[in-house]
Amino acid sequence: MQQVFDFPVTPRYRFDNFVVxxxxxxxxxxALMLTDPLGTENLLYIYGPPGSGKTHxxxxxxxxxxxxxxxxxxxSCREIEALYRGDYSAEATSQLAKHFRDxxxxxxxxxxxxxxxxxxxxxxxxxxxxxxxxxxxIALSGLYPPKELPNLDDHLISRLLWGLMAKxxxxxxxxxxxxxxxxxxxRQVRLPADVIDYLLIHTRRDIPALIEALDMISRHALSTxxxxxxxxxxxxxxxxx
Length: 241
Fold this sequence. Notes:
Blueprint: H1 2-5, E1 7-8, H2 25-35, E2 43-47, H3 54-65, E3 71-72, E4 75-76, H4 80-84, H5 95-99, E5 105-109, H6 118-133, E6 137-142, H7 154-162, E7 164-167, H8 173-186, H9 193-202, H10 207-224, H11 230-240
Parallel strand pairs: 2-6, 2-7, 4-5, 5-6
Antiparallel strand pairs: 1-3
Helix pairs in contact: 2-3, 8-9, 8-10, 10-11
């Protein structure tokens, strides 16, 4: 079961290709502090809207801290229902503890999606406390600040408030432009400024949607042997949409 949820450490989830801007600079700096072998910090909570880089930072932390080159233990709370198969009884084996049994770092994403079940809240708190008291690194993320997260144990909320905490928000146009330029550079694609502006106006503004649009117009440009332009982008999006 664990292999299903192992997080692949891929080139697109590293610190060196994370685009740092005003809305995520603090979270990026705190993530580096967490992975510093000489540092004393061992707890980080990152929160912010979807598509703002939270998962990228968690994966970067895992890539930096894990000894295995292929995967690092990771779990999104959206996968918990599948992990437990609906059985949250106190007598059952803790699937959370089993999943992270050999982990050296605790990486849990999407805390706002934690299912509402008392036994699960207890298991998550126990897992967190085991890592915390052992001095292991912990990085968690969600949409909201700790006090606004539903279904968390009060002890866990209090503990999150003790550690490093940072909000990420890259919804402004300048941040999105920087990210789009970096994504294009990583793909070795020349992306004119007017095309970026067109995408920010005519597509969804979350980062996954912008990545999908960039890949779509890149494939279209390659297949038609045309340079990327606003006209070509309009045609590519029409075909893909």
